[in-house]
Design goal:
This protein is mostly helical. The protein has one domain. The chain has five helices and no strands. The model has no long low-confidence stretch (mean pLDDT 97).
Length: 124
């Protein structure tokens, strides 16, 4: 039964990732992968919030599987982040590649911590 929750979340997360990526990227006239950056940071925020809520006992394991593993797992994309960073470097945009790598990790961690902090503020 748990795998059905993961699938259901992924069914929502994958198209949400694609549509968000395209919407964000279409607003920027640059090679920098703003769309992927946006979905990854957003997903880190949501997952941090869900993790904090679960730790506080505010949500159960089924909702965590549906939204955390399924939705966030399909929404965020480490492989695309890696590929786009590699493409920037290969195309000679080494500074942008470095900014993407460092910025994505730093922003993702910061977003996850912020999500947990919000959940803790709400439920503790």
């Amino acid at each position: 039964m748990n795998w059905l929750l993961v699938i259901a979340g992924a069914v929502l997360g994958a198209p949400l990732r694609y549509l968000t990526d395209r919407a964000v990227q279409s607003r920027h006239d640059t090679a920098f992968p703003w769309g992927t950056f946006a979905v990854n940071v957003s997903g880190c925020t949501v997952l941090g919030f869900l993790g904090g809520a679960a730790a506080a006992g505010a949500i159960g394991s089924h909702l965590l599987l549906l939204l955390g593993t399924g939705l966030c797992g399909a929404l965020t994309t480490y492989s695309t982040f890696s590929y786009e960073t590699l493409r920037l470097a290969e195309d000679g945009a080494r500074l942008q590649a470095a900014v993407n790598a460092v910025g994505s990790v730093a922003a993702g961690l910061g977003a996850a911590f912020a999500g947990v902090a919000v959940a803790q503020a709400l439920w503790t």
